Amino acid sequence: MLIYMYLSIFMFLSGLLVFSMKKDHLLLMLLSLELIVLSLYLLIFLYLKLMYYNYFFSMMFISFSVCEGALGLSILVSMIRSVGNDYLLSFSLLW
After folding, report:
1. Which residues are listed as membrane-spanning (predicted)?
2. How many CA atoms lie within 13 A of 23 on its CB side?
3. Which residues of 49-84 are buried (b: 16+ CB within 10 A; e: fewer)?
4. pLDDT tens digits, one per residue of 31-76
5. In whole angstroms, how large is the CA radius of gyration of the chain?
6. Is the pLDDT of residue 94 over 70?
7. Distance between terminal CA atoms of the chain?
8. Which H or E run contains 46?
9. CA-CA distance, 49 to 91, in Å (whole number)?
């Protein structure tokens, strides 16, 4: 059980590292955010299992994260259709 907690903490920190390093591409930022969300889901699931709680909150969390992922992909598709790429630097020219 402890190895899974260390794994999820490592996933969270690596997701934060990729998110902070790859600020140019929106797709890489979305992928690192999904890695962060999955690591948080694993931590919540392990905590609920350890404390013998109900898993209802974890299902709510995963449904909200799916909605967040769909919203991010829709923004990515609309940005690629309007600008032609997913560089965030070219997105600032539209303002």
Report:
1. 5-21, 27-48, 55-80
2. 4
3. eeeeeeeeebeeeeeebeeeeeebeeebeebeeeee
4. 999 999 999 999 999 999 999 888 888 889 999 999 999 998 998 8
5. 16
6. no
7. 49
8. helix 26-50
9. 43
Neighbours of 33 (CB within 10 A): 18
Contacts of 19 (CB under 8 A, 6+ apart): 29, 32, 33, 36
Two structure tokens written together for 31: 């992928």
pLDDT band of 7, cuts 50, 70, 90: very high
**Gap between the Cα atoms of 29 and 27, Å rounded:** 5
Structural domains of the chain, ranges and CATH numbers in brackets? 2-94 (1.10.287.3510)
Mean pLDDT of the chain: 87
The whole-model pTM stands at: 0.84
Residue 91 confidence (pLDDT): 58
Task: Please give the structure tokens belonging to residue 16.
Answer: 């934060």
Distance between CA atoms of residues 89 and 8, nearest Å: 32
